[in-house]
Amino acid sequence: MYRVFSGMRPTGRLHLGHMAGALTNWVNLQDNHECYYSIVDWHALMSDYADPGKLGGNSEEILLDWLGVGLDPGKCALFVQSHVKEHVELHMALSLLTPLGWLERNPTYKEQIVNLQNKDLSTYGFLGYPVLMASDILLYKAHKVPVGEDQSAHLELSREIARRFNHLYGGGGEIFPEPETTLTRYPKIPGTDGRKMSKSYGNALEIADEIPALEKKIRTMKTDPARERRTDPGEPEKCPVWDLQKFFNPDAAQLGEISSGCRSAGIGCIDCKKYLIAHVAEHMAPIQARRRRFASNHDELMDILRDGARRAGEFAARTMSEVHDALGMLRP
Description:
Shape: elongated
Strand content: 5-15%
Low-confidence stretches: none
Largest sheet: 3 strands, parallel
Distance between the termini: 35 Å
Helix content: 40-55%
CATH topology of the largest domain: Rossmann fold
Structural class: mainly alpha
Radius of gyration: 22 Å
Number of strands: 5
CATH architecture of the largest domain: 3-Layer(aba) Sandwich
CATH class of the largest domain: Alpha Beta
Order of helices and strands: EHEHHEHHHHHEHEHHHHH
Strand order of the largest sheet: 1-2-3
């Protein structure tokens, strides 16, 4: 058993890309490992500090999505980042020793400054968000962190910060283990327009979408552009619908028939989508039923978050006690 930490920013409801790419893996990890999963609201504020009105509601929506897909508060700690004060306390300690150059060379920082020009991101908080991310991970002395390749640079920075802290204050020992980067292969889950599924593109199939809404979106999905007519042969690997088929359709024989039928024009895109809709409905029905059940009991949701923060806080307090001692702070 090893400890796992991961988190998601509360910027809105999650979609099937999140479910396939991360949450399915999180659910598997909770059975055999000590898992801490956090709704990282401080991270959301680092880019949306000027418009925090939806932060609380979005945090609840994410929790409902997590519970719907099968995260079990009896097996893992589910909590809001700001409910465990040690996250920002460790962030402060680590920011003191993190060289500015480490943050300025962060490729994700440079990309987002260019891509999010509609927001003023020239703030200390946004530049320093990788330090907060390192604090999130190191606070629980996470052994491994499942991430996609786009986050690997952040994990390497967390390792460098842990190494620097241990060198300066560890006294020859190791206060923070260096977290291992566990790259997760994300299934390709495109949006309805064929691009990467994203709320900002307006092409997302949301976990919270009722089955009729999912059906309607799937029916409008773009397919292989070569199939302008029913009789035109296609190539499944060029079709966004096929990417969804590979994730949701468990019937290998049927997948083979769909693939060969597409290439020979033996079936049309409408037929392919009908198969997909049936499998998506079967897969999502129990998820949405769980989500609705939790949504009907707000008090239960808050109890889950309070218990998760209590469990996370107990571990975090022990870590910060070690940090205070390492830094030579006067203890009462």
